[in-house]
Design goal:
single chain, alpha+beta, outer membrane lipoprotein receptor (LolB), chain A, three-stranded antiparallel beta sheet
């Protein structure tokens, strides 16, 4: 009974089969980009790197763009008491990005009462927001938009778990050839810590993160890169975020949009989600929370998702998957009351997504 942070796992076999079926039915109508007859990579990390190269819009040589993402966030399973109000922010939202160069860009999110703006320009990187943490649905969306292949997967320097643990296989789903890359952590209860499905040309279609599924669909070419016009985040068969993406070449732009009348932001304050290799406290926090619920029954049987804010409070705790709802409800209620030591960057507290694996 312990917590794992940023570790990816797929638990529900039936949900997996259902989501895979939906994915591959949608693929039949999806535009196939950059088909190639070149030899296929033999190492998983080379598949990750190739997909990252295809999807990385924000490189020094990339084409300037304006992106608009209109999304709807759905409520999650909170298992609240009747007197409690919902903790998870849901509804309609908009993400807008204007990108000219690696250090000339503007990102803005409006989602219910939450609003955040981050810019990078001549005055340095700056950010202001209406809350001291980012709503979970925003973090989920930005992870799929900005880091479909996180840096720790595409770099031999940052890959936390090495290269040899990954398994690669060729599969066919409904006569469609696919490359499946997965890694198991040795836990007999777990299915896989990571699951990725690629087209033979290297296009990433789907990833699983502790049964939190991200899907990229309806891909088009923009400036030699792949852009998916539809994104969705699911917990098993439940849709959590549904997003439609438009992207256009950047024309004339007012340079003042890359300015904010505030001081430059510290490294611990940014819009995009942090990764494990960037933060401090991962191992220490893991050990301290090994017995965080001393009275907690040892059966388990569920996965939780939450955001640990900069003040050490768990926000928007929700059930991603579970077969033991009474224990999950107890754990979620306990987490909402806890104070925990926050993670840190450069000695300052930062927010971090937290996945609780109770299997």
């Amino acid at each position: 009974m312990f917590q794992k942070i940023g570790i990816v796992r797929f638990r529900n076999k039936m949900a997996c089969c259902s989501i895979v079926s939906i994915l591959f039915l949608g693929m039949q109508a999806q535009m196939v980009i950059a088909q190639t007859s070149s030899p296929q990579p033999k190492l998983p990390i080379d598949w990750f790197q190739r997909a990252s190269d295809q999807m990385s819009l924000r490189m020094p040589s990339s084409s300037p763009f304006h992106m608009m993402v209109v999304f709807h966030a759905y409520p999650g399973v909170e298992l609240l008491n009747k007197k409690e109000s919902p903790h998870i922010l849901f509804g309609d939202g908009v993400y807008e990005e204007t990108w000219l160069a690696p250090h000339t860009w503007r990102r803005e999110v409006t989602f219910g009462d939450y609003r955040a703006v981050e810019v990078d320009g001549d005055g340095g990187r700056k950010m202001q927001s209406s809350s001291d943490y980012e709503p979970s649905r925003v973090l989920m969306l930005l992870s799929a938009l900005l880091d479909p292949l996180p840096r720790e997967l595409v770099s031999r320097v940052y890959m936390l778990d090495g290269v040899s643990d990954w398994k690669i296989s060729l599969e066919k789903k409904q006569s469609i050839p696919l490359v499946h890359i997965t890694k198991n952590d040795g836990n007999p209860r777990s299915k896989a810590t990571y699951d990725f499905y690629f087209q033979p040309d290297g296009l990433l279609l789907w990833r699983s993160e502790m049964n939190l599924i991200s899907k990229w669909e309806n891909s088009v070419d923009f400036g030699g890169k792949v852009v998916s016009k539809h994104l969705s985040i699911l917990a098993g068969e439940r849709t959590l975020v549904d997003a439609n993406v438009t992207i256009d070449a950047m024309g004339q732009v007012d340079p003042t949009i890359f300015q904010l009348p505030i001081k430059p932001a510290d490294s611990w304050l940014r819009m995009r989600p942090f990764h494990e290799f960037e933060i401090k406290g991962h191992t220490l926090t893991f050990l301290r929370r090994f017995v965080i619920f001393p009275d907690f029954p040892p059966v388990g049987g569920f996965i939780l998702w939450s955001v640990l804010d900069r003040r050490g409070r768990y926000r928007e705790v929700e059930l991603i998957e579970g077969t033991n709802l009474p224990e999950a409800k107890y754990a979620m209620a306990s987490m909402r009351k806890l104070w925990a030591e926050p993670f840190s960057i450069d000695g300052k507290p930062c927010e971090m997504k937290v996945n609780w694996d109770m299997y």
